[in-house]
């Protein structure tokens, strides 16, 4: 369980002492009812297609595009951290990238539609370094008619 | 994660997110978040349980129906326990670690190679059963990976990837090596897949591969290259397994 108190040291202290950005303003984007929203996934698990370059710390190497047609055997993970479980992803990609589940919820009418493109960052980066890419991505999401983004950490 | 939510929301696209570290989410205060009490690496809770995953998804998506934020809610269920209830889980291969001379680089490499050959049949079975593998980040096959990583024990191998630095090739080769081991042993017939901590305890406590990686970790720390240093300090061996006292510790002891 990721209750902080249950994590072993030194991982617990490492996570507790991580420097984080804070935000003075709290924007609140609106949209249609959930049953009419178009949902995109953004993961920070360092996911990409098998023939994409793995993630690195090179400046600008921030995200990968995952087309909605990507099959489960095409998606791999190159996150640099070794301090989280990967065996769940090895058994079932939905544990970090719940695309099958999203399509099922769409078929059941809970959401309106599933985006044509999804995205992955590698979460080991300083969040402020990702700001330009995130803002650019928002435009790409709007082009895909997305009005609901589900962010999934790892 | 919460930072991305702020930036995207500021551009006018609504976001909702899963939170694995509640403390971080309380600090960053993204617009909408659902904290889940699951292992790091398992934000949807449990593999191959569509019903459970769907309950998590519905809970986090329903935050779009909130009228104002920031909102942070807690998912009310723990992930179903896997592995630990199956007390008979053991590795399908009898790994003879005690016979390995860890101070002899050639003997260690030979034992490492032998171990991967023994596991190959189980990896192939897993591949046929799952019809997918998460190996492939390094672009090397298992024989190339064993030779490449093994050479680090007492030397510096030629980088087989011209488009990546030696340090990144090592990092990705280690990812693929662990995927090979974990996928191979999670497929034992008549046994439910072990839990995450059980697999870690097995790999780091019982395999020659782990002994090789610990030796390579020490070699990385001797290098001047910054990425090699980072590999040695943080990226090859999990923090929970760095100490010899912790390595292979029983899951029940560590989580109590």
What is the tally of helical segments of chain B? 10
Number of domains of chain A: 1
What is the N-to-C succession of helices and strands of chain B? HEHEHEHHHHHHH
SS-based class of chain A? alpha/beta
The side-by-side strand order for the widest beta sheet of chain B comes to 1-2-3
Helix content of chain A: 10-25%
Strand content of chain A: 15-25%
Distance between the termini of chain B: 29 Å
> What would the average pLDDT of chain A be, to the nearest integer?
93
H/E order of the elements of chain A? HEEEEHHEEHE
Helix content of chain B: 40-55%
**How many domains comprise the coordinates of chain B?**
2
Largest interface summary: A-B, 87 and 94 residues
Gyration radius of chain A (Cα, Å) is: 16 Å
- Sheet having the most strands of chain B: 3 strands, parallel
- Beta-strand proportion of chain B: 5-15%
Task: Write down the overall geometry of chain B.
Answer: globular
Mean pLDDT of chain B: 89
Class computed from helices, strands and strand pairing of chain B: mainly alpha
Shape of chain A: globular
Q: In summary, what is this structure?
A:
With 154 residues, chain A is α/β, with parallel strands linked by helices. Chain A is built from four helices and seven strands. Chain A has one domain (33-152).
